[in-house]
Structure formats: C-alpha cells, structure tokens
C-alpha cells in the first residue's frame, strides 16, 4: 500500500512522523514543495495549481491515496480537486476532517443535522491563506451550531520554523495569541490549523493558559487514517520506496538543505531526494 503525504514544506513531517509510527506496515511517500514554500501567503489559484501538480505526481508514482498534510492546500485546493474528479482508484483527502471530528465529538460519516456541541468559543490559528478561505468554518457549520470561531492569521511563524529560528517562532506565536485574546479573551479550545504548529504546541498552550484545550493535528490524522484504511481495503496498492529500499522523501527544493532542516525538524536523520 502506498500513501502519499504532501505539504508545501516541512510542516507535513509532523503528520508523516505520526502516521509512520501508527501504521508501520504502510508504504508512505513524502513530497515537500519546498521550492514554493510557504503556501500560506499565496493566492487560492496559485495554491490550487501547485497542489494539483504535486498530487498528480504522487498518483503517477503509484500512490493510491494522497493526504494533503497542509491546511492551506486543504483549504484552497481539496474541494475543487474533488469536484473536478480524480482518477479511478485514486483518492485525495485533507487534514481538516480529524480536527472537526475531535472538536464536535462526532464521526465524519455522521450526516445528521448540525447540533450544539460542548465547546462554544474556539480560537483558530492558521496561515493567512487558510484564514481567508474560511474553509474550517464552513466544514464546522455542517456539523455544529452555536460555535463562535475567532481566527488569527499567524504570519511569519511558518517561515521562522522552516528557517530553524525557533526563538523567532516562539515570539511570533506569543504575539499572535495576544492578538487573538484581544478579540476573544476566554477561548475554550484552540485549533492549531497548520501542520507546522505542533512543533510550537507547548508555546501555544503556555500562552493560552492551562484552561484552554489545544487541538493539534498529527496524532488525530494518524488515527483517522488508520480507521479509513481499515474501512477501505481497496485502497491497497504496491509499495513505493527509495532505491535503497528505505522511505522515499522527495523535495522540489535543494535536497541537501531540506534534509538538514528536516533532520533538525524531527530530530532524526531524514534524507530527501529531488522530486
């Protein structure tokens, strides 16, 4: 079985790390479009075209299922790609699903009318493009009513993480949390709507306070993927590996540079090759 994990850069490695640990017998291919990162400051059409090109490449390589481990891509490209149609036997899924499942405490297959849920005030931290798309709010509205979502565009955080400048990233996170709190002083829950942000989860939690439940994506996506593959055995296909038999990690950027950044990012050695 080959599953593609796509992200605009390094953020999707948090998802890759979680799914490979949860599903060690599944063959995963990671594709980072580091040449064009970050997506969060690009317009919707640009994100769509870049995402479609990357997903098509993964399908052509033999991946039966591709996970958009990028909230910006999920927000700007996923629905359009699904509406335009995908090749027979192929699927593309986004990363909003597990978050909304966890927040609303209902399964994605539950098509009953929207209902009230326990959480009423939610802070959403995401890239400018994800915030502008309002995709999270639309998907949430299909399943819950009476939830007030206050979104905060976190400019600069992805760039700082990609550059390995965690001191700057922490300062920016605290600044964005302060800005959010001026609009919503007492959120009950916070959504980290970017796959880079789990690396800063402790900083978000500290800045928000212990009383705020923080939802991060990596482990939620891993559990949802395990459930999905268990229900969809027809998605099985041939394994896709690197020439040496190891995991295949691809980048549109400089492989040596991306490998170094990725190794620091996950604190274990990762070797990328040119896409």
Structure description:
The protein is 44% helix and 17% strand. The chain has 275 residues and is of the alpha/beta class. It folds into 2 domains: 2-94 and 219-274, Rossmann fold; 97-216, Rossmann fold, CATH 3.40.50.1860. The relative contact order is 0.18. Strand 9, helix 9 and strand 10 (213-215) form a beta-alpha-beta unit. The protein has helices at residues 13-22, 44-61, 71-84, 96-104, 128-133, 135-141, 157-162, 166-183, 201-208, 218-231, 255-266, and strands at residues 2-7, 27-32, 65-68, 91-93, 115-116, 121-126, 144-145, 148-153, 189-192, 213-215, 248-251, 273-274. A 6-stranded parallel beta sheet has the order 4-3-1-2-11-12, sandwiched between helices. A 4-stranded parallel beta sheet has the order 8-6-9-10, sandwiched between helices. Helix 1 packs across helix 10 (218-231), helix 2 packs across helix 3 (71-84) and helix 8 (166-183) packs parallel to helix 9. It contains 11 helices and 12 strands. The protein is globular, with a radius of gyration of 18 Å.
Keywords:
275 residues, alpha/beta, Rossmann fold, 2 domains, six-stranded parallel β-sheet, four-stranded parallel β-sheet
Q: What would CATH call the architecture of the largest domain?
A: 3-Layer(aba) Sandwich
- How would you write the strand order of the largest sheet? 4-3-1-2-11-12
Number of strands: 12
- Total count of domains: 2
User: Briefly, what CATH class of the largest domain?
Assistant: Alpha Beta
């Amino acid at each position: 079985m080959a599953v593609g994990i796509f992200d605009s850069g390094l953020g999707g490695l948090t998802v890759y790390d979680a799914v490979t640990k949860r599903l060690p017998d599944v063959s995963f291919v990671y594709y980072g479009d580091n040449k064009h990162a970050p997506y969060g400051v690009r317009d919707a059409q640009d994100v769509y075209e870049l995402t479609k090109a990357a997903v098509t490449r993964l399908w052509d390589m033999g991946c039966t299922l591709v996970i958009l481990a990028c909230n910006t891509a999920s927000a700007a490209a996923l629905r359009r790609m699904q509406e335009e149609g995908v090749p027979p036997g192929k699927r593309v899924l986004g990363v909003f699903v597990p978050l909304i499942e966890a927040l609303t405490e209902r399964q994605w297959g539950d098509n009953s009318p929207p209902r009230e849920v326990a959480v009423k005030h939610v802070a959403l931290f995401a890239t400018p493009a994800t915030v502008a798309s309002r995709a999270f709010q639309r998907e949430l509205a299909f399943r819950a009513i009476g939830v007030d979502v206050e979104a905060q565009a976190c400019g600069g955080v992805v760039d700082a993480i990609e550059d390995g400048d965690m001191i700057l990233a922490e300062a920016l996170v605290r600044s964005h949390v302060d800005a959010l709190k001026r609009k919503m002083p007492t959120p009950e829950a916070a959504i980290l709507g970017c796959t880079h942000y789990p690396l800063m989860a402790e900083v978000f939690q500290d800045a928000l306070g212990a009383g705020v439940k923080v939802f991060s994506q990596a482990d939620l996506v891993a559990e949802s993927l395990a459930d999905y593959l268990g229900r969809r055995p027809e998605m099985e296909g041939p394994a896709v590996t690197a020439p040496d038999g190891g995991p295949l990690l691809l980048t549109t950027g400089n492989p040596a540079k991306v490998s170094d950044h990725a190794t620091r990012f996950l604190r274990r050695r990762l070797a990328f090759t040119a896409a």
